[in-house]
Request: fold
Amino acid sequence: MKYITTILLFMGLNFSYSQSINPSHIINLCSGQTVQGTTPTTNAYNNLYTSCSTLALSTAITLYYVEIESGSTFTFTVTPNAQVDFDFGSWLNPNLANLGPSDRGSQNTIIGITNVDIGLSMLEPIQLCEGPGSAPPATANVPGFVRWYDVVPGDGILIAVDHWESSVVSYDLSFGGDAVLNCTVIGKTYEVCDWDKDGKESFDLDLIKDEINNINKTFTIDFFEFEADANTLFATNTLSSPYDVSVTDSPKKIYARFKRANGLLARVTEIDFIVNEVAKLPEMDLEIEVCDFDQTKDEYFDFTDIERIINQENTTQPEYKYYENEADAIEGNNNYITNTTNYLSRSKTIYIQIMINGKCPIIVPLKLKVDTLGFPPKVMDYSEFCAEETADGLVYDLEKSIEYYLDEEDKDQYAFSFYTTRNNAINKTNEIAQPNQYKLSFDTQETIYVRIENERECFIISELNLDSKRRIIRDDIYNFDCEPYMLPPLPLGYNYFTEPNGQGKRLSPYSTDAIIYGIRTIYIYGNSLFVNEDYPDFNKCTYETKFTVYNNDCLVPKGISPNGDGLNDSWDLTAFGIVKLRIYNRLGSLVYSHDEGYTNQWHGQATNGSTLPSGTYYYNFESTNGTRHGWVQVMYETK
Reply:
């Protein structure tokens, strides 16, 4: 009869003292965790009982839930961090909608004991519950502890920690036995990237059911948009698979309802879906191009130039890291480029790791291009022979120099402008309005700066040197003495010639050729190639003028008296510019000859050096002024 009464007592407790537990008040825990507790998480429950007492636990309750993933035994320990009395109740596979008395519990007192820990122990083979105020020796083998749970995978345990004393003290909650806890109980977050950039992604709820179920798949799992529906055992407005979540809705929270095989509600777990943005890119290859103004092939790059372009494609500003090789970018290593606003480089490809909110990195090549325009700056002297002479200066056609600067590049790909200062050329200010008619006064030197610019506005500056010189002009020379005329030196670019157009013999000043005898017409020929034989075509021009030298006609001496008295000892023909001299005796035999360079070498000797006898000899000579012939008398006189 006592046995029946006991059964009726427990049946009455289950009926009279059951409460419905809101899963949102439960803290789901995972294997290997130690939980720090302080104040109770809720005071909503005042009707929770242990199986051995009609005295309810206090309302200062914190509820925990664990689920068995594997193993066969389970224990837990509540360790207060001060000498404060805690109680507990626990339920194996509880019905949260109708929670009756706990199947394990302790409401002992700490009077007479040194260890205030409570929980389940492998050292308590029989004791399932300690009633209110239990103290040694009316306690279990270990005060505050009762028998462990024998469990199978899929079992769930609800633990109520009762802070029934008024003082607030923290505690540790740890787990034992050989059981491994199911971490999916604590909720789960599924995070994906919107790789196709359509603003949404789909999640397979059926796969998630299999993942969050226990090893034996004993739960029936349904998903709901609202927590209230998930807590309703018979709610049917479940979510279907696949489940779409947009980037703007992220993080999206839904609720998984776990029902046991007997149809009872086991728990409700939160599921979070996050669809992360993937950075959008412009529909073009990413490239930064800078101008190689100093012609070193190395220039400084500012990566924020490309960031501004990418930012325009995205509502959320991306984060950027730059790498010199693709492998480091993919791995997200720490050796990224730090000087992103003044990165010195030649033309090459680097790699950008782009993320939004630190997620979903994409790796994009970035081409760095140093634009050299294909040719370097040049400096050229503009020959005055190629300019048009006016009364007071020279007029230059500056545009004729353009092709020289291009190195056979296509002229139509570039813009040209001319300036009188380098600063103006750099800033494109005060451009020469009519470069094909640029006039420079005589005796003036000036440098013209030529800006050559491509379609990307990269430019170089070349120089064109102008020296406005007057043309060389010589008036006719009248020399009334029987002395030769000496040709004076000419400026660079001019030379004397004996015939027009630079033909005939070139007469070099300070040489014997520069001594002009008799009447001679001399041609002054100016040619830019005399200055630089490698001048380009636009700079190949000539100029010519002429003048005549009128020397008084000198008489050929009629005789010599080679007697050593210093008077007429030799036949002096210096004034004639002899080219070839021949002397014959009366019989017509050649007795003396001399080629170019004769001045006064003959003093009556034969070609072999012997002395010729006195008498009349006949001559024939060629000179710079023509040919002459006649006779000369040799007469020896005694001293």
